[in-house]
């Protein structure tokens, strides 16, 4: 594979965002997307004049319109008329008519991350990065802070259950943001507290090599100012190595995880259906006055990976000086983020869930959690690979992860931003599976097949970052209409 990263892409050059006053009216191209809508919502809360467009209507766009944004359905050059700044995501191509018109008019064009950096300016920034778990961890930190009395601003890549939105403007001077590493845009942020949940090779379509991925995270950690904190997972080799390097450079580091010696150590988790519990032990002297008795972490979501994510949230509470017992009480109310083991319904005693997992490590975590929920019953999976490049790189690892299920149906690859790669199909994965079903080019037949296989007490899990989420309701419908005699 040819390395696509460059010195410009991977060197942490200080980005100084414009002030909100300098932005004028801000137009978002593709405003309905999760990341774009979050920034638009934040700016509306800050009194910025906002407009935006998208190819189709959505509930999120309707909400932004109700908050005062000018919303255009369809994209056209005239939509940018009157705008001073235009915001794009990596998905927007130069041929987009609105972006072309903005370039021709000499308007300021910002990447979504640069616009978010402008919205965060002046706040204590908690930026959550990592190959996996960013959305859930950012959501947990937000729910935790608000429950503990800290009215934080937040921008998350998915709807936070319990809050009902993916972003909000708070008054506490603390900003919690999901920091996307997929295109190195997280290097536009200036985190006071940087969280790295894990560090593995991914997004090689952008970076080219694993080494370039690691270099970007090194530069992300280097953005932490004097007096700031790196929160890192002790269980993950990449994150732990990053913390060791940062600590050697003089950065304060807080580690969390199940590993002995972590500053915030989780004891083995106890799982009961969708609930998870673990005792927490703190490094001596970390919380003066705590005493010897470990505290208890309780969650309404399953899996050790979620207990680990909550460990990161607790570390943030420590770094911010938030009362840890109040933080744990707030975390006990956390019920999840959209598309993260999200319940879609039930039919014939079979529960259907949806999960955004799209990397082998994430798929493994989702299926391990599914096992704790299903107990002695079976787990059936409808999986949709995301990106040709990722499928090519990790086909064997995906097959190994999917073998944790009892039956698997694998849809065609969701291309997202990529063009096809010769010879790369879902059969690269299914040819290495040891479970029934395999490749399923006919999605309707795959839905019916999984519904036919499932019996009361089983669970069906749709997995992937594409439109596989749309099959959850179809599975519930198939289960509900099929009485099996």
From TrEMBL:
Per its record, the protein catalyses: UDP-N-acetyl-alpha-D-muramate + L-alanine + ATP = UDP-N-acetyl-alpha-D-muramoyl-L-alanine + ADP + phosphate + H(+)
Q: Does the keyword Transferase apply?
A: no
Q: Which residues form the Mur ligase central domain?
A: 128-317
Specify the superkingdom. Bacteria
List keywords of the entry alphabetically: ATP-binding, Cell cycle, Cell division, Cell shape, Cell wall biogenesis/degradation, Cytoplasm, Ligase, Nucleotide-binding, Peptidoglycan synthesis
Q: Which GO terms describe its cellular component?
A: cytoplasm
Q: Where is the Mur ligase N-terminal catalytic domain?
A: 26-122
Gene Ontology BP term (one): cell division
Q: What is its EC number?
A: 6.3.2.8
Q: Which stretches are transmembrane?
A: none
Domain Mur ligase C-terminal: where? 339-466
Pathway entry:
Cell wall biogenesis; peptidoglycan biosynthesis
Where it sits in the cell: the answer is:
Cytoplasm
Q: Which GO terms describe its molecular function?
A: ATP binding; UDP-N-acetylmuramate-L-alanine ligase activity
Q: Give the residues the record marks as binding ATP.
A: 130-136
Q: Which family does it belong to?
A: Belongs to the MurCDEF family.
- What is this protein's function per UniProt? Cell wall formation.
Q: Which NCBIfam families match?
A: murC
Q: What is this protein called?
A: UDP-N-acetylmuramate--L-alanine ligase
């Amino acid at each position: 594979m040819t390395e696509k990263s460059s010195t410009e892409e991977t060197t942490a050059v200080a980005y100084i965002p414009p002030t909100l006053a300098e932005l004028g009216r801000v137009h978002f191209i593709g405003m309905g997307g999760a990341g774009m809508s979050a920034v638009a919502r934040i700016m509306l809360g800050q009194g910025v004049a906002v407009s935006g467009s998208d190819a189709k209507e959505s509930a999120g766009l309707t909400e932004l319109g109700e908050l005062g944004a000018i919303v255009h359905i369809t994209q056209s050059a005239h939509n940018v008329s009157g705008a001073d700044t235009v915001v794009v995501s990596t998905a927007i191509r130069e041929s987009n008519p609105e972006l072309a018109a903005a370039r021709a008019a000499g308007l300021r064009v910002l990447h979504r991350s640069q616009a978010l950096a402008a919205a965060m300016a002046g706040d204590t920034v908690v930026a959550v990065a990592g190959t996996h778990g960013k959305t859930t961890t950012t959501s947990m930190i937000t729910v935790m802070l608000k429950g503990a009395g800290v009215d934080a601003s937040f921008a998350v890549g998915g709807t936070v259950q319990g809050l009902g939105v993916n972003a909000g403007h708070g008054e506490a001077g603390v900003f919690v943001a999901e920091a996307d590493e997929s295109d190195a845009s997280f290097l536009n942020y200036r985190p006071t507290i940087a969280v790295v949940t894990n560090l593995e090779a991914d997004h090689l379509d952008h970076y080219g090599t694993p080494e370039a991925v690691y270099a970007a995270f090194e530069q992300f950690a280097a953005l932490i100012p004097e007096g700031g904190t790196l929160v890192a997972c002790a269980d993950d080799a990449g994150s732990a190595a990053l913390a060791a390097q940062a600590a050697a450079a003089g950065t304060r580091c807080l580690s969390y995880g199940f590993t002995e010696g972590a500053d915030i150590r989780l004891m083995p988790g106890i799982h009961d259906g969708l609930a998870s519990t673990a005792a927490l032990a703190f490094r001596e002297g970390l919380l003066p006055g705590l005493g010897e008795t470990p505290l208890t972490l309780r969650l309404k979501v399953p899996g050790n990976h979620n207990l680990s994510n909550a460990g990161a949230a607790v570390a943030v509470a420590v770094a911010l000086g938030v009362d840890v017992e109040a933080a744990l009480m707030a975390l006990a109310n956390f019920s999840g983020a959209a598309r993260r083991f999200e319940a879609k319904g039930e039919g014939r005693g079979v529960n259907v869930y949806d999960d955004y997992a799209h990397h082998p490590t994430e798929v493994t975590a989702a299926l391990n959690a599914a096992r704790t929920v299903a107990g002695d019953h079976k787990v059936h999976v409808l999986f949709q690979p995301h990106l040709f490049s990722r499928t090519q790189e990790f086909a064997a690892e995906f097959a190994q992860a999917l073998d944790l299920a009892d039956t698997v149906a694998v849809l065609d690859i969701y291309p997202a931003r990529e063009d096809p790669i010769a010879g790369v199909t879902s059969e690269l994965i299914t040819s290495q599976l040891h479970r029934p079903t395999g490749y399923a080019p006919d999605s309707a037949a795959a839905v019916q097949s999984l519904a036919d296989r499932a019996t009361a007490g089983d669970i069906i899990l749709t997995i992937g970052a594409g439109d596989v989420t749309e099959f959850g309701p179809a599975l519930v419908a198939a289960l509900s209409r099929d009485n099996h005699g």
